[in-house]
Every structure is written in structure tokens, then in C-alpha cells.
Amino acid sequence: MKFTLSWLKDHLDTEASLETIADTLTRIGLEVEAIEDKAAALKPYVVANVISAEPHPNADRLRVCMVDAGDGAPIQVVCGAPNARAGMKSVFAPAGTYVPGKNITLSVGTIRGVESRGMLCSGAELGLGDDHDGILDLPADAPTGQPYPLYAGLDDSVIEINLTPNRADCASIHGIARDLAATGIGTLKRDAFPPVRGEGACTVPVTIELGDDPALCPVFALRLVRGVTNGPSPAWMQARLRAIGLRPINALVDITNYMTFDRGRPLHVFDAKKVAGGLTIRRAGEGEELKALDGRTYQLDGDTVVIADENGVESIGGIIGGEASGCDASTTDVLIEAALWDPKNIARTGRRLGVITDARYRFERGVDPAFVLPGLDLATKLVVDTCGGTPTQATIAGEMPDTDRVIDFPWTEVRRLAGIELSRAEMKVTLETLGFHVAGTGDRVKVLTPSWRPDVEGKADLVEEVIRIAGLDRIEPKPLLRADVNAVGPKLTVLQRRTRSAKRALASRGLLEAVTWSFVRHEDACLFGGGGADLALANPIAADLSDMRPSLVPGLLRAAQTNADRGYGDVALFEVGQCFETDQPEGQSIRAAAIRRGSARHGGDGRHWSGTAAVVDAFEAKADALALLTALGIQTGSLQIVAGGPAWLHPGRSGTLQFGPKNPVGWFGEIHPAAMKALDLKGTLVAFEVRLDALPLPKFKPTKVKPVLALSGLQPVSRDFAFVVGRDVAAGDVIRAAQGAERKLIAGIEVFDVYEGVGIPEGSKSIAVAVRLQPVERTLTDAEIEAVSAKIVAEVAKKTGASLRA
User: Fold this and answer.
1) Residue 92, pLDDT above cutoff 60
2) Could you give the CA distance from residue 803 to residue 806 in angstroms, rounded to a whole number?
């Protein structure tokens, strides 16, 4: 929201400086983002009299001018402007002046052998326009030596503030002035708006045909003004519109733009002779379209509320008008429209059509419903004063909505919510200056909210109004009470503790943490099991970030490839974050994932003096996953590792981690070649992913305290077994079966050989394991060792169908 200082003073009687006004605006919640002070930027430029303009002795197109800048002896300037002549008044910049239009700083120089000690300037060189044809030609009565910004009225600073969406009342300069007046730095000018007494009724009928949704357009007012002359708007109005970045068009259009910013009351004007029959406010029909004033053609649907006549749609209500009924230099009869529109429908329609206008900005936040008719009258007065003409009476369709809201407000609420003690008199004056009506004299009062403040709904909103005007700096700082840490329960949930532990565990394995987008390309989402319409973003920040991610792996893979493209091929990355299977809360999960590329194995950086460093494989990803589960305190005794995994993993080099067939908790393996091709990845990549919220919860039960480390003083015994099993039997099944034979004595089992070939029956394989027995109470005898060995062989045979290899 932009406005000039002089425009603000049309509504606020104040002697406060620009700096004071800017500081006050920010203090009361209307944050000042920028102040453009052209007077300061153009301060060195002065009005000068050209005493003489002689031809340059060494250049046909140059003139040597003697300039009187009002401060003493004439100054010699070499000028190339074709209109430079003796006796004219222009703008002079001495040496050392910065020229914004050329982005240079002047210095004393010599041009074709003649010294030049300054510059006579055009409007383009001052940054005031696009006129490069000649230097500024000022009237003869322009005072020599006067600063040009003062002479040209450029000392009117432009202030830009940042409005929060709830402050629709300050989308007008009058509303901003009202807020400033409440702080005491000025007095709000309250202009009366006597109703316009038109001659006769408006001849254009208005009907509202919205069926069961009258709230889409509660009230619509229209007035006809005959005999106008639509030329340029007044110079003062054009200057103000240009200052805030608007291009003057013609008087009728400029008045509507002026009203939008001055009073926050968007209006629209129709050329009455281009309107056929009456105006109807209705929903657009399927297939209807409108060529709008911005030159674009918009395809409309049944959710769009339009203003139509017998020819069809003439305007999209509250957003933009149509080109066919727009006002131009030939307009002699004009229809001025002022209406109310449903904020939610305006927002949806504007977003769907992709059109942003000053009217939409205000209507979707909420305009003052009580200012519909006064706004129409004020606009009519401006039209008649500027363009002439005879107005008719206003035609009104619909009913004005009831916006009265009374809040039962105890004054003590300010102290309770804000911790500040203010007098009742100060609080009452603040609310009344802001437009609230306060009734009552006791501890509790009734507060009637003004029609322009739809955001004030309860007691807390009134406290906010009082406090922001009083100043947050008046709140006495107090230390927070120190909590009794002994009385506080667990501060983190199980999932929060797991998230932190997972990050530490993966970092300890040499993996680097990455933080990738929660959004991925649609193609990537489909590749990793997502891509549903419920997870597609309605307004993505980029075309390649269109879907919520179903997995952490695609983001890590692309990060690894980006590193490889920049010369860092052997990378190991991990991430712990949220993934999305559906748009429902239960469809979201917290996962930990990691990828390794090239030779980034655990315990090494991929470089070796022999030059034969091994590349990563599926077992590296498996080791990372199991190390994570161990660090999280998950008992892996019942964990099953099943061959195969999701479609994005290699079917023969991947596995699924599960606690039973119905409870898969993760996957690991090598990335599928088809996925590598689809993602344009190169090299060898392995990954794992574990769902932290699917892991078994810890069991809290009283247990006997055991030593952290219990060492036996007895010698362990190792025995090797080679079992012949079917080719489809997993080594893990053999290990679990052997472990169950004698849990108290067996301290560890490791697979050291898998063999298929000569001496092994077709369809079978040999799995050799080393079993370590650790006695606790006494040394084992040979007979006891043989008995344990027999139990191991029998248990493995029972569980897997194995036989001891000869």
C-alpha cells in the first residue's frame, strides 16, 4: 500500500515530521517498508537561467551555454540538447551531482576542447520520465536558484507500508489516517458526505439473480450521469496516481482508482451507451467469456459472479471490468457502480482466473459495507466536478447487511492478557478514536464495532487494538517463572527421541545429513509409490516440485547426483523427515533414509593407495539399517529380512525388514536400473529407508539390574557346521534355528561360506556357520560340547530341512 505525505494530510491534520509518522506507523502494526524521498535525491538540482547559447567551435551539434544558477558568476556548460537557447529557464546540475537517469556522477570535464562545469538536464536524466529530446523548458517566471524539487512539487514523499490480511480498513489512506489519529500525532479530518440529489430516476434497471446465495452480492447501487466530458483528470490527481505507481488513463477511470486508494471503496464505471438494457448480477454460464480491460480474455464458469446486460457479460463482479463497455474519450453518459461482494468468492474467482487487481485485493479482505452509498455519492461529486454532467438518483438492488457486533468487554481484560495497567479513560479514548462506540461506565462496558472492522470479533481483539496504540514498549518486562524440573514429566515423545537418536546414529557411520524439499516432481512421486491427486499441490512453488514426497529417497538420490556432477561422486547422505502416502493425518509417517554412492563405504572415504577401493553394495545399506535399529534399542531377534523390496529397488539385490508379514518397517538394497534411468542417475547407488513410527514401541517393565558389561573368565569354544539346504532357504533362517538350540551357551553365530557346485545336489547349497559357545559357570567337557553340537544340528534340520554336509 503506497501513499504520499500530502495525500495523507488530506485526511490527517498533523505537524508531525515524516520520520515521526513512519516510526508511528511501524509501531502500531502498519510496517513501513520503504520511503521514497525524491526531494532528497534531487536536492542539488536548481532552476537556472540560460544567459547565452553559442555554437561549439569544434562540434556542430553542441552549444556552449553560460548559465546563471543564482549563486554568483555564470557557469559554462557544454550542452547537446537541440532546444537549448538563450533566455530559457531549465534545470542545472553542478559538478559532483549524481544523475539517476544516466547512473553517473558529474565532474568538471572538457568536451571537444571546451570546459564544461555541469549539466542542463532533461526529464529522463532526472528519472522523471522518458523524454530524451531536449532539456527541461521551464516557464519564464520560474525563480532562478530555487531547488528544482521544491519548484516542481517533488518534495512529496511516498510511503509504502506492508498490510497484514486482517487490516482491510487500512487499505485506504483515510483508514491509515484514522489509525495515526488514535496515537495522538494528529486529528482525523471528518468530511461530511451529503447525499447527491439526482434529477429523475436512473433509467437502467438492476436485478440480482443469485438464487439461494444472495450473500454473493448483498447490495448493488447504480447511478447514471448524463452529459459528461471525459478528458484528462486534474493534474493533482494524475500526480498522486503516478506517485503510487498507477498510470493515469482518463478522468472517469482515474476517479475510480483514486477512490480505491483514498477511501478503500472500489468502483466501476460503464459507458452507458454501450450497455444494452438493464444490468443483471448473476452467475456466469458455462462457456461464457469476457475480454477484460487488461486485454486478456477470461473463460468463466458457474462459480464466477458477473455483471451482465442483454449483450452478455460486461464485468467480473468485484474484480475487473470488460473492454466492450469501458469508458473512453467519446463517453458522454456514464454509469457509476458501487456494490458489495462476497470476500471468499472473490478470492476463489481471482485465484482461479489468475487476475490480480486493486479491487480484488480489497474485496477479498472486506470493504466497509456502510460506505457503499456515501462512496457512490463521493464518486459522483468527483465526476460532476471534473467532467460535468447531470446525475440521476441512485438505483439500489438488494439489502444492506447487518454488521452490528456488540462485545461485552471488561476493562481488566487488558491487564489480564497484556500485563499492562492503563487508565479507563485512555482505553476508552483509544477505542472511540478508532471508531468503536463504547457504552457504559462500570468495570464492564458494551463495545459496538465499526462497520469497517470485520476482523474484530471478541475481547482479545479489543485488547490488541488498545495495546498496539498504547505501544508494546509500555509492557513491563518480567522474567518467566522457573519450572520445577523435578515435577515435569517426559519432555519428548518416543518418536521425537527416535528422530534425534537416528540422526546421531547415522552421522556416526560417516553419513552426512541432508535436508531436501518435501515436494518432488510428479514423475518422481509416481516412481516411488506416490503421485496421487490428493497429494498434488494446488499452487506449487516450482513446476518440478509439484507433489508431496512419498519417500525420502528421491530427494537424496538427486542430491547425490548433484554432488557427483560437481566432482564429489563418493557421497553418503542421510535424512530424517516426513513422508506422505495420503492427505490424511494417518497417511503421514516419519522416516529415516540414507544413500551411498560409488565407493563411499562405511569406515572409508572411497580412496585407497592401491586404487582398488570397492564400490558399495546392498549389504552396505543393510548394515546401515541394522545399525540404526540397534542404536534405537530395537530388539532384532524377531526381525525378518525378506528378499526383494519396493519397485524402485533391484529385485535381486534388495530386502525388506519386517516384524511379521503384516508389519514391514523398512527396505534396503541397490537402486533399480530403470529408476536410475528415469532419474538420470549414474554410478552405483544403494539406499535404505526405515519407518520410525512403525517400529515396535519400547516395553517398560521392571527388570533386575544387570551389569552393563559381564565378562566370563572361561575360554570360549568355536565349532563350525556346514549344512546342505535348499537353494531357497535363507542364511538367516539357519542362524535363527541354530541360535534357538541353546540360547544360554551360544554367544554368536556367523556365516563364513556359501557354496554351490561339485559335491552339492542340484537345487541345493551349502551354508557354513561358525558357532561360538561361551561357558559361564565352568569349562565345558567334550561330551557337553558334543551334546550342544547335536542339538544345533537337530534344530537346524527340524526348522530348515538341512542335513550336515559330509
Assistant:
1) yes
2) 9
Residue where the block lists cell 545399506: 621
Quickly list DSSP for 147-213.
BHHHHHT----EEEEE--TT-GGGSSHHHHHHHHHHHTSSEE-----PPP--SS--SS-EEEE-TT-
Judged on CB neighbours under 10 Å (0-12, 13-18, 19+), 244 is: middle
- In a 3-state reduction of DSSP, which class is residue 55? strand
**Bridge partner residues of 91 (DSSP):** 47
> Could you give the 3-state DSSP secondary structure of residue 403?
coil
Checking if the pLDDT of 708 tops 70, the result is no
Backbone angles phi, psi at 670, to 5 degrees: -90, 145
- Reading the block at residue 225, the C-alpha cell is 450521469
Whole-angstrom Cα distance, residue 142 to residue 699? 91
Positive or negative, the CA dihedral 736, 737, 740, 746 is: negative
Instruction: Give kind and range of the element (H or E) at residue 279.
Output: strand 279-283
Q: How far is CA 73 from the centre of its chain?
A: 59
Q: Is-contact 244 2, C-beta < 8 A?
A: yes
Q: In sequence order, which residues have a C-beta less than 8 Å from that of residue 538 and are 6 or more positions away?
A: none
Q: In the chain, what percentage of residues exceed pLDDT 70?
A: 96
Q: What is the 3-state secondary structure (H, E, C) of 198-219?
A: CCCCCCCCEEEECCCCHHHCCE
User: What are the grid coordinates assigned to 598, written together?
Assistant: 560409488
For 487-523, give the secondary structure using H, E and C.
Answer: HCCCCCCHHHHHHHHHHHHHHHCCCEECCCCCEECHH
512 DSSP β-pair partners: 573
Cα–Cα distance between 55 and 108 in angstroms, integer?
20
Pairwise CA distance, residues 183 & 176, whole Å: 11
- Looking up cell 557557469 gives 75
Phi, psi of 429 (to 5 degrees): -65, -40
**AA letter at 578:** Q
Which residues on neighbouring strands pair with residue 689, listed in sequence order?
Answer: 593, 667
Which residues, other chains included, contact 404 with Cβ-Cβ below 8 Å and sequence gap of 6+? 448, 449
- Give the confidence band of 700 by pLDDT, cuts at 50, 70, 90: low
243, 235 in Cβ contact below 8 A?
no
- Cα–Cα distance between 509 and 602 in angstroms, integer? 6
> Which amino acid appears at position 187 of this protein?
T
Q: CB under 8 Å to 148, separation ≥6 — which residues?
A: 42, 45, 46, 47, 91, 126, 154
Overall average pLDDT of the 592-605 stretch: 82
pTM confidence score: 0.64
Assess contact for 172 and 263: CB atoms under 8 A. yes
Lookup result for grid cell 526531494: 39
pLDDT tens column, 463-485: 999 999 999 888 888 887 776 66
Do residues 501 and 517 touch, judged by C-beta distance below 8 A? no
Rounded CA separation 607/5 (Å) = 68
Range from 170-174, 189-193, 231-235, 801-805 that averages highest in pLDDT: 170-174
Phi, psi of 544 (to 5 degrees): -90, 15
Least Cα distance to 410 among 451, 440, 454 occurs for 440
Query: Are the beta carbons of 372 and 339 closer than 8 angstroms?
Result: yes
By DSSP bridging, strand 664-671 and strand 685-691 are: antiparallel
